[in-house]
Amino acid sequence: MRLPLLGISVFVMMILLQADSWEQQKSKYRDWRSSEFRYLIYANHANFDDPAKPIQRQVYLLLKEKAFSAANLKKLFALISRRFPQPDWLEVWVRTSLMQIGTPEEQDEPLISESPYIDPHEDEHPEALMIRIQDNEILRYTPSPPYINMDTMSLREAIHRR
User: Fold this and answer.
1) Which residues, other chains included, contact 125 with Cβ-Cβ below 8 Å and sequence gap of 6+?
2) Using an 8 Å Cβ cutoff, are 72 and 37 in contact?
3) Domain chopping of the chain, boundaries
4) Are 161 and 82 in contact (CB under 8 A)?
């Protein structure tokens, strides 16, 4: 009786040691591979149609609301600027809730700039706009919703993408 019990105990110990080793390897991979925060690019548009106009790129992304801070927005803009070094005109729109993003059906509807309709969820979640035009880089963001004014800061000193 003792022999099978001893064998099972050794087998279980080996599995536990192997699992611990696997967790250490996974932790090393996660530390190397993962970002400090999670984000998703849900749209990316560039206008190459009219050669007379400067090329502009607009990137739209969703950032976890818990990660929304001026420090993380600076890091995020550095990441996006490295991903899209061209063209010189880059706009990055940051949303923190799916309620701020139109569904495909809503995107298909015509927009009227003077429409009296106001999205009831517009001010419930933070958002940001980061703009790069040549060497000028700014960040406009809502420090805490609901907001009246957006904070603005220059990112030129904060981001070194080249």
Assistant:
1) 65, 95, 96, 97, 99, 100, 145
2) yes
3) 33-104+119-162
4) yes
Phi, psi of 145 (to 5 degrees): -75, 160
Tokens of 6: 């001893």
* Unique residue bearing structure tokens 């996974």: 26
Whole-angstrom distance, CA of residue 14 vs CA of residue 153:
55
**Rg of the chain on CA atoms, in Å:** 24
pLDDT in single tens digits along all 162 residues of the chain: 455 666 666 666 666 666 665 556 555 555 545 678 899 999 999 987 777 888 899 999 999 999 999 999 999 999 999 999 888 899 999 999 888 888 888 778 776 665 555 566 667 888 999 999 988 899 988 877 776 677 777 776 544 333
How far out from the chain centre does Cα 116 lie? 30
Sign of CA dihedral 91, 92, 97, 101: positive
